[in-house]
């Protein structure tokens, strides 16, 4: 059991390091790959795909631009990274529990 615990500890340490490194995105130029809005598509391609036009206003990000009102950019990035990892870990754990029962 302690061997299994050590492998999990390494995973959590690695995820923590990645969360702390997430503010590096603040110094990168341009937008992150795949995070383009309609305006970036228009700029890159010269047009906006029809599906994107139709659904562009349907989804609003829970933490737009990885910021939290009242926090600075760096703390906001770290909180967004930790929140995202926690949500993914919980959903994965929950799905694993459901599938393990079957």
Structural class, by secondary structure, is mainly alpha
Helix content: 55-70%
Count of beta strands = 0
Tell me the distance between the termini: 24 Å
Q: List unreliable stretches of 5+ residues.
A: none
Q: How big is the Rg?
A: 18 Å
> What is the overall number of helices?
4
The largest β sheet comes out as: none
Question: What general form does the structure show?
Answer: extended
Overall pLDDT confidence: 81
What sequence of helices (H) and strands (E) makes up the elements? HHHH
Strand content: under 5%
Number of domains as seen in the coordinates: 1
Structural account:
- 62% of the residues lie in helices and 0% in strands.
- The protein is an all-alpha fold and 102 residues long.
- The chain has one domain.
- Helix 1 runs antiparallel to helix 4.
- The longest helix is centred in the C-terminal third of the chain and has 29 residues.
- It starts with a helix and ends with a helix.
Write the layout of secondary structure elements.
Blueprint lengths: L1 H20 L16 H8 L4 H6 L17 H29 L1
Helix pairs in contact: 1-4
Keywords:
single chain; 102 residues; mainly alpha; 4 helices; extended
Give a short summary of the structure.
This protein is an all-alpha fold. Helices cover 62% and strands 0% of the residues. The longest helix is centred in the C-terminal third of the chain and has 29 residues, at 73-101.
């Amino acid at each position: 059991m302690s061997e299994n615990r050590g492998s999990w500890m390494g995973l959590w340490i690695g995820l923590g390091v990645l969360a702390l490194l997430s503010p590096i995105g603040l110094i990168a130029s341009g937008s992150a790959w795949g995070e383009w809005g309609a305006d970036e598509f228009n700029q890159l391609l010269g047009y906006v795909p029809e599906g994107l036009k139709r659904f562009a206003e349907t989804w609003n990000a829970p933490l737009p631009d990885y910021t939290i009102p009242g926090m600075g950019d760096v703390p906001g990035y770290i909180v967004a990274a930790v929140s995202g990892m926690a949500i993914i870990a919980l959903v994965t754990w929950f799905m694993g529990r459901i599938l393990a029962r079957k």
